[in-house]
Amino acid sequence: MKTLLPLLLALGVCATAKAGPALDRIQSSGRIVLAHRESSVPFSYLLPDGRPVGYAVDLCLKMAEAVRKKLKMSTLNPQFLLVTPANRIQMVVDGKADMECGSTTNNAERREKVAFTVPLYITGARYLVRADSGIVELAQFDGKTLVSTKGTTPLKSITQANGERALHINIVEAPDHAKAMEMLAAGQADGFVMDDVLLYGIVSARPDAAKFRVVGKFLTIEPLSIVLPKNDPELKAIVDEEMKRLIASHEAQAIYDRWFMKPIPPKNTALNLPMSYLLKDFWKYPSDQVPY
């Protein structure tokens, strides 16, 4: 029995070292599919020429390069796939995307289907309103219309709060952030509830930005992370290791500053959003474990 133990341990090591389905697909095809969003500024969005850019996109490209090196591939071609809030998780589950590079919250419900790496941002849901509305807090939406984006945690949270607190808010769904913003601007909604950083990003790209403001206390706390397949711990290990390396080397901070503190395309305006104490504290001991 003693002589078998080292052999069994060796076999176990070999088994865990075997590439999972995503890595097999990446290696055999020579490409890695990165899902991105259309209007999640500054995380993942399209420029007028159709090119996907953003904070999460830059981080995903770093992850793709780490995968290339780990698999000892001479080249690895990133291929971009546009996803929506409603289908982003399923695209990863179905193997159509190897990572989702957007503004997706890591929570218990989603962890049943997919995996997440170390959070790249920690935010919370608040409310975008017209500056002349007089609205400054959630209770003032009583009898009014709030829009949120289909398939997002803020939509789920405001729906739950509306029922539990008997707020009498008319909640409507938009297919994406751009449509929700359009509804607010057109007076079809009195507020847009979403992660506050996304609200700041959406407004910054508008010529009439001064007509809107973000108000209210946090409805939720949202740790945003890159989404990965649940059934490929080997891919996750590579991505986790690279994310921790970027944090330790302060490269992640530099990428953060590029997208949150400096002028960004297409309007070349800066969000001027310094890194929050929540993210700074979390990055002191980076982990994919979040208490949500």
UniProtKB/TrEMBL annotation:
Residues 1-19 form the signal peptide. One of its GO terms (cellular component) is extracellular region. It holds the Pfam family SBP_bac_3. InterPro entries: Bact_solute-bind_prot3 (IPR051455), Solute-binding_3/MltF_N (IPR001638). Keywords: Signal, Transport. Residues 31-263 form the Solute-binding protein family 3/N-terminal domain. It comes from the Bacteria. Coiled coil: none annotated. GO terms for biological process: amino acid transport. Belongs to the bacterial solute-binding protein 3 family. This is Amino acid ABC transporter substrate-binding protein (PAAT family). It comes from Roseateles saccharophilus.
